[in-house]
Amino acid sequence: MAGLSRSSFIDLRPLTASPAFARLWAGSALSGLGGQLTIVAVMLQMYAITGDTFAVSMIAVAGLVPMIFAGLYGGMLADAFDRRVVALLAASVTFASTLLLALLTWFGGETPAWLYALSIVNSSANSIVLAARMAIIPRLIPRELLPAASALNGISVGMMMMAGPALAGVLVAVAGFGWTYSIDVVLMTSLFLGLWTLPSIRPEGAPPRPGLQSLRDGWRFLRHASNIRAQYLIDITAMTFGQPLTLFPAIGAVLLGGGAVTTGVLTAAVAAGAFASSLFSGPIGRVRRHGVGIARAVVVYGAAVTAFGLVLGAAALGWFAPEGVGPHTVNVVLLTLAVIALAISGAADNISAIYRSTMMQTAVPDGIRGRLQGIYVVVVAGGPRIGALYAGALATLFALWFPPLVGGLIIMAVVATILRSSPRLRAYDALHPQP
């Protein structure tokens, strides 16, 4: 059993090798838990106010353009200034926007316009925090431990997304939106502790002057980095066509039953898969063909998303729910199958993310890493927002089961095409990383 633990379970050495990384990891996990409370609560509150799935999907879409600019600008700042300071300032904006959201809700001032506006501010500031934090990590731990650090981040994301949405559904149902946002405000203070205790982390070499030329330099590097480009294309395809998150409130209300609690359970299922795959991520650190690993993981992701669509189609036909569903009546059989499909999708996405993050942190030079991480954040955070528009529009035009069913098939076809047409990605060797 000890041998199995060493070879198969997650590698915890980054936490002991770098106390600074350990503090940052813990602070990010706790604040991320609070962030998930707010993300789910905002969706539920918008649906409660409007009763419109498309309005829920527009929460993500409205923040797309500001988030793109914030991610690119934040990455540029991370290459020009102390990355610790950049992350702290952006985290302060996130804290202020969440506090205002809580106050508006407590005093009855929440409106769809406020929900949209504060979600935009929150997501934009978080993009800057993420770009700076991801550029910081390779400076805190040895290169050979970066895959293990990425797996640990998968553990934290899995825990916060597994507990956060489920807890949000319960908190909203039992205590209301105000308490849910307020708990996020308290948990967010842990991020400041993790960032504040870091040493000064300035980019290596002569820092570029912030401005358009600095951004052009980042894009110029990306133009010649075919492996990084290929992983971006694979990820944005998966996130665009395989993110049914905005459909969950309506699925809980009209297809599977259970209301807000089902919304939390479905979201937590994705995180449970990510958590499990990180827990057993030991073998991933020994894989050298990261490009092939990314593609295979995303193909599995697409298959799981398609399976989820099929489950929703069965629910629309009334299978296993002869007496119907409602806020207090759940289609247990199909909810279970939906949870399994989403857990598999979460596991596959997390494995892909470990490979992608390691490739980014080892193949990209430190002096330009912030700008590339900024572009990476735009891909990772922007794809789901485009996906929200895709899912919301197609669900409105056709049915709730249609976007995931078709989206999963598209993902598998596109990824297979990219891998076949990218010989450098197929040949990528983690021991000799090339962008």
Automatic annotation (TrEMBL):
InterPro entries: MFS_dom (IPR020846), MFS_trans_sf (IPR036259), TM_effector (IPR010290). CDD domains: MFS_MefA_like (cd06173). Keywords: Cell membrane, Membrane, Transmembrane, Transmembrane helix, Transport. The chain crosses the membrane at residues 21-48, 54-73, 85-107, 113-136, 148-173, 232-255, 261-282, 294-320, 332-355, 375-395, 401-419. Its main location: membrane. It is found in: Cell inner membrane. Coiled coil: none annotated. Residues 168-435 form the Major facilitator superfamily (MFS) profile domain. It is a multi-pass membrane protein. It comes from the Bacteria. Gene3D superfamilies: MFS general substrate transporter like domains. This is MFS transporter.
